[in-house]
Amino acid sequence: MRNELNPSQISLAYFLIFNSEYGLKEGKEAEKVFYYYPPDEKIEKQVRIAGFCAGMIRFTQTFKSRKPCEFVHTEKIRIIINQLDENFWIVMGLNVPISPNKVYESDLISDQIYMSILKQIYKSYKLFNGIIGDCLEQLGHIKLRENLKIFFDDYIENKLNVHDSDIMNTFNGLQFMSLDRNMYLKIQCLLNLLEEKVSLVEKVVVMHQDQVIWSGLEQEDVSSIYGYLKDLVIKNSSIISPNQSTLHAKFLVDDKIQKILTSTPSTSNQIPNDEIDQEYFEFKKIYFEKPKHEQYYLIPYNLAKLTFFIFIPANQTFKLSLLKEIDEVLAKPMISFLQEIAELQMKRNMNYQEEKEIKYIYFNRLNLAQKSTLNNSKDMPKHLMTLISQLSKDLEGCTPSGEIFVKSGKDYWIACKKSDLREVYVVVCQKNANLTLIDEEVKQLCNTDFTNIFFME
Amino acid sequence: MSNTPNKFDQLSTNSDTEFKAESNDENFIPIYDSLHSNNQSPLLHNFDQVLQLEEDYDETESKSSASGEPKFVLNQREFDENELNVETKSDLTEINEKNSSQIFSDAEDQDTQNEEVDLPVEQNDEWRSQSKHVFILSESGKPIYSLHGNEVKLIAFMGLLQALMSIIECDNENKLNFVVAGDHKIAFLHRSHLILVCVSSEPDKCVEQLELELNYCYNQIISVVTLSLIEKIFSRSHNYDLRNKLTGTEKLLTNMIHRLKSDYGMLLNCVNSYPLQFETRDQVSRIIAQQITPIRSVLFGLLLFDNRLVSLIRPKSRNIHPVDVHLLVNVITGFDTPKSVEFTWYPICLPNFDKNGIMYAYISHLDESCKTCLILLTGMCDEEQSIELNECRKRIQQKMQTQNIFQIMNLKLKDNSLKLDQIGVSELKHFLFKDNKVFQYFVSDYGLPYSQSLEEQQRIFDMYQKLYHKLHNKTNSLRIIYMQKKYETILGWQTSNFEIYATFSPLVTKDITINAINKLLEFTQKNKSKIFLSSMPTLPR
Fold this sequence. Notes:
The complex is a heterodimer of chains A (457) and B (541).
Chain A: E1 11-19, E2 33-37, H1 43-61, E3 71-74, E4 77-85, E5 88-95, H2 111-129, H3 132-159, H4 167-171, H5 181-197, E6 203-208, E7 211-215, H6 219-235, H7 247-250, H8 255-262, E8 284-288, E9 294-303, E10 306-313, H9 320-351, E11 359-364, E12 370-372, H10 382-396, E13 401-408, E14 412-419, E15 422-429, H11 435-449
Antiparallel strand pairs in A: 1-2, 1-5, 3-4, 4-5, 6-7, 6-10, 8-9, 9-10, 11-12, 11-15, 13-14, 14-15
Chain B: H1 31-35, H2 47-67, H3 81-115, H4 125-128, E1 132-138, E2 143-146, H5 155-170, E3 176-181, E4 184-191, E5 194-200, H6 207-225, H7 227-236, H8 243-246, H9 250-260, H10 264-268, H11 278-292, E6 298-305, E7 308-315, H12 322-334, E8 344-348, H13 351-354, E9 359-365, E10 372-378, H14 383-402, H15 405-412, E11 428-435, E12 440-443, H16 454-471, E13 478-484, E14 489-494, E15 498-504, H17 510-526, H18 528-531, E16 538-539
Parallel strand pairs in B: 7-16
Antiparallel strand pairs in B: 1-2, 1-5, 3-4, 4-5, 6-7, 6-10, 8-9, 9-10, 11-12, 11-15, 13-14, 14-15
Helix pairs in contact in B: 6-9, 9-12, 11-14
Function (chain B): Plays an important role in membrane trafficking through the secretory apparatus.
Domain FUZ/MON1/HPS1 first Longin (chain B): 132-255
Region (Disordered) (chain B): 1-22, 55-92
């Protein structure tokens, strides 16, 4: 994320985590700040910003607001504040972009989008480290500071991209792969079989490339882990034919462990297989929130484009034999699935039409399914994406269903429709259109692309 | 002269506006320029004229400041400069002493307050739960005004406001605009030594509306104190207690804030015009113009009925900004003037006319019901002037009486030709039409079920207010908004000529709405001469 600063783009000004109960004594204010980015910032400024945020939070509470201070709009910097745990606060400061004629364009930063991003950052932290308050108890504040630095430095430098964010960040939805019923049932059967044969398996997520086929997780957990799983899949997308894939490649483990996995018990000259315990494989440990706060091993099992993510409670012990059992159950059926899915996709591609003029985003809040033909947000004016996120906020006020049509500038129309928990946003760029014409267009789109989904008229 | 005691009766404090008009503060950005960039003049027929006038305006202003050319520079002749200097000096030293002693006593007060059972205001539950607060303080954190609670008791709280503001401003000349916490929105405005803060938990108010409201409050203060006096006072003593200059006018601020809650004219930056037959309006205008033309000191003549503008007589080259008209109306509605009073003089600064100068408003109610109100704005005010204007007013009153105008104006309230049902679309429940050429608007009556509940009508106002700010958003300005909501479908549409805000029943189709809008446009076109003031006679000045 540390790119050269372009003043016409939204960029990160600072990022901090502070605890309002620390650093209360005079001269020790710096203890308040648990993490600060950029790391080379003067300590006085760090303290000043943390102090300001703490002051603002207290100030807003004077008026019995239901939520403490969330957004501070200043001319040059937008500050977004979120409470993590009782006394922990996470703060993100964004540089307001400047237009070519040197005006600060505050309205290009959508509060909702960046609040979602801020929340998502902590969700990722929580996934691997657990609740920050618990960490403070377990590690003590010095260790926690180190721990935060490792995680957030990496996240901010490599994963956080503040200038290309859009409405999809607020949905945090999943891309589902739609399969026909038969396929779906077959996968269900296989999952049942897996749980039957390998009793330690508790939860499974099945993905085809970056699309979800099946998730056995709670809604909240799956939305926090989806990004990580997607990255994992993309990083390890192998071109090896599924028949030849080796065990270590299937489990996406290190070369170091490769030897153990490929060696047969008889030829092993190092540690006997039976003594290798679960820690040895260095599988990631992950915290889930629901139904209760618990830690799991995440064991990926990948064949070509298909990946099964298997979750085993972290308090269980397992050995190499477990991995072999999994392989035995999954390997064969997965190969045939891959073939069937490939055929299905072939068929779909035949039907796939040319890219349409009309772009849309669909989101279902119930199952987090999202679908978008606006994949490349760059081909839309930036302010339209901000507008969509504003409209999404307005749509919240339309209960249980409603619609909003707006015309922005000369030719852009945005139509939003909502039915219970489903929402669709359609962008039409058309000269000399009028309300009825756009209405027709949207109706047509709903008829072709959302045949099974009911939208109120 | 039995009436002379009434002179300044409302604002004796304002007599100390003894200063020269100064327009040398180049840093000052005209208040409404940023908000309503093109809407400078209310009663013009086209944009070109607006632009032309703006130029004229600038010229006269710079001329007046440079040469002291007396044409529109107000308030200069009356005061002896030497006297002024002596007075202000002694005044200020006194204030300084007072302030320093006050600081000590304040500090003591606070200490004792915390110990006492009597909680500070900001811990009072009722105060904390108010849905709206407005605070005004000086840059040094001295309280000037609070909508709820005694501002003096809020000194510590105001200090916190000032501190939060200054932390942001210290950093790279940044500016604090607003803060959001759940449903609570807090808008800040820092302008010419004053800090204005609005805290609102009204869920339907958007931040832009709060900012608009703060701008009105700011203008209200300027209208009492003038910008140049504020600059002067605070540059000499930044710890000055501005309440000394505002005594008695706090209720104008409060009145302003209450009016903003539901006044469409203030929202749309329009004059509230009173619908009247073209002929009658013309008659009224001619009577007033005829009478005030010979009195050289009168710059503007306004006739209001029911606090809405019936007629406006202005010099050829100058115009009056809608905001300034709202400030004048605020004076009429804000003070409970006894009805027996024949006339009042009120010194007022019209910030969009001359933010540094004082004008004198001669205010008189012409009929028994006190609905008809004549305002004459002059550059000076003395006994001679009072006699002259009284005579003039009496003549106007007489003529209007003989021509039966009071009666006609009263009747117009019951006129049916402007009713909503004339449009003939039953799904249309209410609409608001703004003409962008003349800066006036027309608001329809309410259809069922809205006509029966004030709450519902307020809800419509709040929805339009949101639409208005969406249409006028700086980066994302919209042309059309069509929203189907739970209880109604609303439409906002702006073109360069007009703006329409309309409410329909919830399940209306788009074809019906478009049909209704077309009919609505026909309707307003047809009734234009009735609804709006146009082609008013001007004064040859």
